[in-house]
Amino acid sequence: MTIPCDHLATMPVEPMPAGGCGPCLADGGRWVHLRFCTGCGATFCCDDSTNRHASRHHTETGHPVVRSKEPGEDWAWCYVDRQTKEPVAR
Predict the structure, then answer these.
(1) Which end of the chain has fewer CB atoms at under 10 Å, N or C?
(2) Domain ranges in the chain?
């Protein structure tokens, strides 16, 4: 039995930020998919991208939850509890 994730249960649903992966844009990198941090609203590249900025952001800040910015995707991931919430919209 999986214990429910408090991070996913209490994350904000809106707003979704505009723009691409800040660190990739700054250094000329490329991304595969985009995620955004529900803690601070910053946008980062996914783990399929070379630089894995979303995971790095979690490691550096401890912010636990990211959401997908991809069109048609409505899910969130908690790095701490390693759980997904789908759909996010209430």
Answers:
(1) N
(2) 27-90
- pLDDT tens digits, 35-50: 999 999 999 999 999 9
The SS3 assignment for 45 reads strand
Q: Under DSSP, is residue 9 helix (H, G, I), strand (E, B) or coil?
A: helix
Average pLDDT over residues 58-65: 98
**DSSP code per residue over 56-87:** HHHHHH---EEEE-STT---EEETTTTEEES-
Looking at residue 43, the DSSP 8-state letter turns out to be E
pTM score, whole prediction? 0.91
Measured distance CA(43)–CA(18) in Å, rounded: 8
Please tell me which residue, 7 or 12, carries the higher pLDDT value. Answer: 7
Fold assignment, 27-90? Herpes Virus-1 (3.30.40)
Question: What number of CA atoms fall less than 13 Å from residue 14's CA on the CB side?
Answer: 2
Q: What is the mean pLDDT of residues 8-28?
A: 92
